[in-house]
Amino acid sequence: MDPVHTGPYTVREATPDDAAGARSVMLDTFYREFDYGYVPAWHEDVIDVQGTYLTDPRHLLLVATRDDEVVGTTALHSRGPASPPHPAWIAERYPSGPTAQLVRVYVRPEHRRHGLARTMVRMACDFAARRGDYDCVYLHTNVDIPGAEPFWHSVAKEICDARTTGEHGPGFGTVHFEIPLPHVHVPSDPR
């Protein structure tokens, strides 16, 4: 996958050298924006960035960098949402294997509004489509984060607003989304 340059930023596939920077962006988001910090049951991939995203050919970690500093992340893996904490019907609709789950779409606050998240999400969806073994892209988001809800509504289809169904319990602004896979033309073998 070719890197994408947008202003002073570069969006590209992560390398092992990016693991510490990516982990820092993720952990800072958990502690500073989500206000609940690192939860081992939910965030095991953050500790083993390399093993989770860089060694499995079905998984992907993208980073947005500026002057070699990781300022944003987006990841994709082949595990569907877990129940609990998510509703059982969501886990059944998006099973592990054929579901590409989009996770860790984070951009440091001072680097937002430059199209980085949108670029990373597009690249991750293109990756899933090119693989040919995913049926759809699923994600859930915390819409209590400023800008999250309008962003996701601009790129994805809402499946369930758990705030209105009460399926996550009080205090969780979780909304579930699906992104249709883009059509990717794969040339036939000329032989």
Alpha carbon gap, first and last residue: 25 Å
| Most strands sheet | 8 strands, mixed
> Uncertain regions: pLDDT < 50 for 5+ in a row?
184-191
Strand order of the biggest β-sheet: 1-2-3-4-5-6-8-7
Descriptive notes:
Helices cover 33% and strands 27% of the residues. The protein is built from seven helices and eight strands. The chain has helices spanning 19-33, 40-47, 49-54, 88-93, 116-131, 148-155, 162-165, and strands spanning 4-6, 9-13, 60-66, 69-77, 99-107, 136-142, 157-161, 174-179. An eight-stranded mixed sheet has the order 1-2-3-4-5-6-8-7, with helices on both faces. A hairpin with a 2-residue loop joins strand 3 (60-66) and strand 4. The longest helix has 16 residues, at 116-131.
List the defining traits of the structure above.
disordered C terminus, eight-stranded mixed beta sheet, 191 residues, 7 helices
